[in-house]
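Example 239, ligand guanosine-5'-diphosphate.
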Amino acid sequence: MNVIAIIPAYNEAGTIADVVQRTRPYVSAVVVVDDGSTDQTATHAAQAGAHVIRHPQNRGKGAAILTGLAHLRQSQADAAIFLDADGQHDPDEIPQFIRCAENNPAGIVVGNRMTHTADMPWLRLQTNRVTSWITGTLAGQPIPDSQCGYRLIHRRVLPALALGTAHFETETEMLIQAGRAGYRIASVPVRTIYLPGRHSHIRPLRDTLRFLRLAFRYLARSQTTANPDHRRHSLGPGR
Ligand SMILES: Nc1nc2c(ncn2[C@@H]2O[C@H](COP(=O)(O)OP(=O)(O)O)[C@@H](O)[C@H]2O)c(=O)[nH]1
Ligand SMILES: [Mg+2]
């Protein structure tokens, strides 16, 4: 299987080079989507051997994911593995995703941090449980850790994705759309890495409201009727 890595990054100059270098042995190419960083993220990524796609302004992790998916569609790769730029995902676990995808006709393989939760902050653990239950219900199949950004997306699922969001909730939206289109969503256990003093770009109130808005939208939308209008937004790099 020809797999590329796609790393959405926003102001991760301190970690990006290490993540790129440690990812390169496992994939045919590493793409960093630098989402309007104001630090040296793009330079460090390129020096470490990544192909860098830059957004002139910060548009959100979901917008960077859309840019990455458009790149996957234009590439020769069978699948893309998405991982975070801040060192919370261990690139040495990439082969597990590829193995799972090779043995399964899954559309998406999501990392599951919920088997090792000792280091996970209590509130994050609870929100991960609740949001995973809601996402699994909306997607029509159980998903143990829907908020994990470490995931493999097979190119076969691309036609089913017409993502209308641009921030952290995009990772939820793609699971719901893939699940509703009949694709299997598989999981592989991954380690949870919570580095001391690390900073999260997630703002609990704002991003919870975005999640709930998304959930209500899909709850209201029937499982079977796709919104034809929605396809207009599919995978264009301009969003
Ligand atoms: N492209 C892009 N990536 C982002 C943005 N915000 C966060 N990220 C990246 O998404 C990943 C996860 O973000 P983070 O703040 O660590 O969230 P957390 O790990 O869930 O607390 C990191 O690799 C960030 O660099 C953004 O606005 N744009
Ligand atoms: Mg993080």
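Summary: Residues 206 and 212 are 10 Å apart (CA to CA).
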